[in-house]
Amino acid sequence: MIDIRPVRTARDLDRVHRLVHDVYVDAGYFDPQPDGRLRVYGAFDRLPETLVLAAFDADAVVGTLSITLDGPHGLSCDHDFSLACQTIRAEGGSLMAVWRNATAASHRASRLDLALIRTGSVLGVGLGIETFVSTVEPSLERAYTKLFGMATVARTEGVAGVRSAGVLMRGSVPGTFARVGAERTAALDAAARGWRRRVDEGGGRVGALTADFTPA
């Protein structure tokens, strides 16, 4: 049984970085790294605005998704779509980014990527977020429109640091929550409250990580 939950230890975050390395290298986005890890937008891992989700199959991390609430440090997609992100911010609504979605090859047939986005929508609804943005590869554009009701905002021929073109898409958090049949649970509501508390306190640690967290 797959268990999706916030990353809480340095060991689990390290396993996320290893999974992302294997998935992205296999897709041709990056060259293999000597240490077998990819810390994509690694500075965002250390922000209280970021929550890292991991999907566990027994003790193995087989999927991951990161979510960042807009704040003083911005969003990962600002790197490639600064003007588009500023235009969305100017609308005045609450905003989050969904990024670093990766699923192990062994679990892609299970649609774990959809389950991760479903979980992200539950957390977004729990915090009252209105809009989310995500940078996706062009081949996924139609699927994201159909599945999540997202709309294309901007395009780039090359995402910084990745050998791939990119499409910035936006969606409604409540709308996606309804589309994917998500359900709120006590555990995810508690995770959302803890995440918001860390943002409000400006704790400077990764979303829901425990106090003993030390970046790998």
Which key phrases capture this entry?
Aminopeptidase; 6 helices; 7-stranded mixed sheet; single chain; alpha+beta; 216 residues
Outline the structure in words.
With 216 residues, the chain is of the alpha+beta class. The chain has a single domain (2-200), classed as Aminopeptidase (3-Layer(aba) Sandwich). 35% of the residues lie in helices and 24% in strands. It contains six helices and seven strands; from the N terminus they run βαββαβαβαββαα. The chain has a seven-stranded mixed sheet, with helices on both faces. α3 packs across α6. The longest helix is centred in the first third of the chain and has 18 residues, at 10-27. The radius of gyration is 16 Å and the shape is globular. Residues 204-216 have low confidence and may be disordered.
Task: Provide a quick synopsis of the model.
35% of the residues lie in helices and 24% in strands. The protein is built from six helices and seven strands.
Count of the domains: 1
Q: N-to-C terminal Cα separation, in Å?
A: 28 Å
β-strand amount: 15-25%
Give the class-level CATH name: Alpha Beta
CATH architecture, by name, is: 3-Layer(aba) Sandwich
Rg calculated over all Cα atoms: 16 Å
Contiguous helical run count: 6
Order of helices and strands: EHEEHEHEHEEHH
The overall pLDDT, averaged over residues, is 90
- State the fourth-level CATH superfamily: Gcn5-related N-acetyltransferase (GNAT)
Largest sheet: 7 strands, mixed
Strand order of the largest sheet: 1-2-3-4-5-7-6
What gross morphology would you assign?
A: globular
Pick out the low-confidence regions.
Answer: 204-216
Helix share of residues?
Answer: 25-40%
The quaternary organization reads as single chain
Structural class: alpha+beta
> How many runs of DSSP E, i.e. beta strands?
7
CATH topology: Aminopeptidase
